[in-house]
Amino acid sequence: MLNLLKQVESIAKQAGQDILLSAFESQLSLQTKKSDGSIVTETDEKAQAFIQEALYALDPSIGFLGEEMSQEEQLQALHHGGKFWCVDPLDGTGNFTTPLPLFAVSIALIAQGKPKLACVYDPVRDEMFSAFKGSGLLINGEPFEPVPNHKALKDSVGFVDFKRLKPALATELATKKLYRSQRNLGTCALEWAWLAAGRGQFIVHGGQKLWDYAAGLLLAEESHCVVTDFIGKHPFAQSQLSSPIIAAAEQNLVDAWLSITKVDETP
């Protein structure tokens, strides 16, 4: 598994450096809007094509689910059974086109319904966050052991995406002093990686796509973080293309968030 991880890291880094970073620096990547209003660029599509071809060369028996596929194709890959790669070739396209230097390549291997291998690569900072199941988190190939902080929610800083929360919950989080402070990086993959690396204490998101959380979730869990949805179920408890997310460095923070979100999710 370590050898496979190294190969996937190499693919992610080549896509990040040769495709994403070069296009970001030139800002020559043409963009259009998808049916859901999100932005897609030529760079997203070029990076996905490169990654898909490179992963196929590693093992043609493994399926592929990428962000820039149609939903029909994504669902087919999700429910086909067996192993598949889950890829976001350019996570943070809005940042990329602003231009704001916060974006990443995200690759996960899903087997038996759960992520078994993952890497998130930040080409701007040349940082690779990676893991395989049971390995612990690696940052640039070096083992990372998180330092327990045991902070209460009111003393914690984390990542919150307000626009994907229900209005009542978003208002509550924005107006009540439930936590010390929040950030929104505009890239789910880096928020997951930074949580795993101890650069924040929690993530709260009203609905991430599978390619947003597949790799990052494994990184976080390999760094001893706790992950659930808004009602206490694991995002991989069932096959689905999206899920609300609560992730935190400590169980007490997850419990604190669930006390808030479970009320909001009650019919």
Q: Explain this structure to me?
A:
- The protein is α+β, with helices and mostly antiparallel strands.
- The protein is built from 8 helices and 14 strands.
- The protein has helices spanning 2-26, 42-58, 71-79, 93-96, 167-175, 188-196, 210-222, 251-265; strands at 31-33, 39-41, 63-66, 84-91, 104-111, 114-122, 127-132, 138-139, 142-143, 157-161, 181-183, 202-209, 226-228, 242-248.
- The strands form 3 sheets. Strands 3-4-5-6-7-8-9 form a 7-stranded mixed β-sheet, with helices on both faces. Strands 11-10-12-14-13 form a 5-stranded mixed β-sheet, with helices on both faces.
- Helix 1 packs antiparallel against helix 2.
- The mean pLDDT is 94.
What is the name of the CATH architecture of the largest domain?
2-Layer Sandwich
Tally of DSSP β-strands: 14
How would you characterize the largest beta sheet? 7 strands, mixed
Distance between the termini: 43 Å
Report strand order across the widest sheet.
3-4-5-6-7-8-9
Question: For this structure, what is the CATH homologous superfamily of the largest domain?
Answer: Fructose-1,6-Bisphosphatase, subunit A, domain 1
Helix-strand makeup class: alpha+beta
The Cα radius of gyration reads 18 Å
Whole-number total of structural domains:
2
SSE layout and pairings?
Blueprint: H1 2-26, E1 31-33, E2 39-41, H2 42-58, E3 63-66, H3 71-79, E4 84-91, H4 93-96, E5 104-111, E6 114-122, E7 127-132, E8 138-139, E9 142-143, E10 157-161, H5 167-175, E11 181-183, H6 188-196, E12 202-209, H7 210-222, E13 226-228, E14 242-248, H8 251-265
Parallel strand pairs: 3-4, 10-11, 10-12
Antiparallel strand pairs: 1-2, 4-5, 5-6, 6-7, 7-8, 8-9, 12-14, 13-14
